[in-house]
Amino acid sequence: MDLYDQMMNLDRRWVYLVIGLVVTITAILPFKVPLYITPEVRSVYNFIESLEPDDVLMIGVDYAPEVMAELHPMSYAITRQCFSRDIKLLLCCLHQNGPGMVEQVIAQVSKEYDKVNGEDYVYLGYKPYPGITILAMGQNFRIPFPEDYYGTTLDSLPMMKKLTNFDDIKAIINISGGSGTEYWINYANGRYNAKLAIGVTGVMTSDYYPFLQSGQIFGLIGGMKGAAEYEDLAEKGGYISREKDQLWAFKSMPIQTTTHIVVILFIVLGNVGYFMSKRKKYGKYEHP
Amino acid sequence: MNTHDIIFNGIAAFLSISIYTFLYKDNPLYKFAEHLVVGVSAGYFAVILYYNGFIPKLIEPLRQGKFEYIIPAILGIMIWTRFSRKWSWISRYSIAFYIGSGAGIAIPLYLQNYVIRQLHATMIPVGFSTWQLFSNILIVVGVLSALFYFYFSKEHTGAFGGVAKLGIWTLMIGFGAGFGLTVMGRVSLLSERVVFLRDYLAELINYIF
């Protein structure tokens, strides 16, 4: 096997080893990388900035711990921005392994801003079958969620007195690591015309750009890069602080940068090996 | 970090490393961690579903005298006949109801939101005077050429073949963007774990010394 063949047939464990080393070294010796804020992330931030105190924003948190690296920073940054501006939050979860994710965020951030459950925020909890749950919420939040996550009836919560359905909230931000986003687009926006923005994992991002272009969603926060952009905006707005260690996605961007360079180098290496071995086998101008 | 955190974060660190050992080759440590994840997820889901679905959506309404809820309960019980070869045909009624109602709700909305509104989004002004108008040209040309590629009733030769080839390029660019974002997503998960292990190691050294 000559050098070009070796380049093409490199044992994948070498790739893992090099990426592992690069990630570890960058984690130990971080550096600062510049960040470009994309319009789709800025539009979510600007929309929340345009809200008045006591306006209600709904956040649908539909992800499990396996994607919290990408999505948890979004949830924290948005919640902190809203609570800083005295915007009320209505939260729900339509992913079976996600109720704990919402509780972690809301418990921590509400304590930071002295926000009271039932007055400044309501956590509706989890219900199975996202499509049916969203359709029911479009009629009345009390149909799928007669009680909140903590077992209090919605009618006894002061914040819920003026809230019936999607017409009474300013917008929905769905932060999702799976197919939950489809349901929000299809049912909340499609059926009830609710204003919708989404935060999704990197893998899902390219699937949802067409909905941004068609105007079905007004903003898109894509993966850890999107989360880092949002954190950057929130830090400049004074809602989160580097000193308090609240910029998680932003801190991971140097790792993203170095790892992507390594992946690009491996792709170039494989392609050089492919074309050179073909050239050696079939000559400069002949191809099979 | 107190002793409690050291122990539980230590378990998390051990399980993370166990999962990553699969990158070298399959081994008992990986199997143990994998089975633990599957078991815990299934157990957690069962409990969540019981307290958020079964109790409030069936038991509570029945307690309140809403006996119409017996109908979905019977449909639900009928699904369980799938475990019997002799009686499994009964489950088809429940499945038929579920699929029928689900399709009735979903199909018109999917057509509206995934086809008509997406088609509408390609009917846009085009031109060369601004960047936005030029971007619109790319959208329209990309959509049309990709649709040409999926038209199989005519051989992909001549001008038609050329447009279909442009369609392949459009699809490849789309797949490339998807692959790049997938790499970003996977690296994000890895970086979070590495940062967690780094912080845990630092805390452990502080705790011991």
Instruction: Estimate percent helicity of chain B.
Output: over 70%
Distance between the termini of chain A: 20 Å
Trace the largest sheet of chain A across and list its strands: 3-2-1-4-5-6
Overall mean pLDDT of chain A: 92
Order of helices and strands of chain A: HHHEHEHEHEHEHEHH
Radius of gyration of chain B using CA atoms only: 28 Å
Shape label of chain B: flat
Structural class of chain B: mainly alpha
Largest interface: A-B, 54 and 42 residues
What is the total domain count of chain A? 2
State the total count of DSSP E strands of chain A.
Answer: 6
Rg of chain A is: 23 Å
What proportion of the residues of chain A form beta strands (DSSP E)? 5-15%
The major pleated sheet of chain A works out as: 6 strands, parallel
What would you call the shape of chain A?
elongated
3D structure, described in words:
The complex is a heterodimer of chains A (288) and B (209). Chain A is of the alpha/beta class and 288 residues long. Chain A folds into two domains: 3-30 and 253-282; 39-246, MTH777-like (Rossmann fold, 3-Layer(aba) Sandwich). In chain A, 51% of the residues lie in helices and 11% in strands. Chain A is built from ten helices and six strands. Chain A has helices spanning 3-8, 12-28, 39-50, 68-84, 99-112, 130-139, 180-189, 202-213, 223-236, 248-282; strands at residues 56-62, 88-93, 121-126, 171-176, 196-200, 220-222. In chain A, strand 2 (88-93), helix 5 and strand 3 form a beta-alpha-beta unit. The longest helix of chain A is centred in the C-terminal third of the chain and has 35 residues, at 248-282. The radius of gyration of chain A is 23 Å and the shape is elongated. The mean pLDDT of chain A is 92. Chain B is an all-alpha fold and 209 residues long. Chain B has a domain at 124-209. Chain B is 78% helix and 0% strand. Chain B contains six helices and no strands. In chain B, helix 3 packs across helix 4. Chain B starts with a helix and ends with a helix. The model of chain B has no long low-confidence stretch (mean pLDDT 92). At the A-B interface, helix 2, helix 4, helix 6, helix 7 and helix 8 of A face helix 2, helix 4 and helix 6 of B.
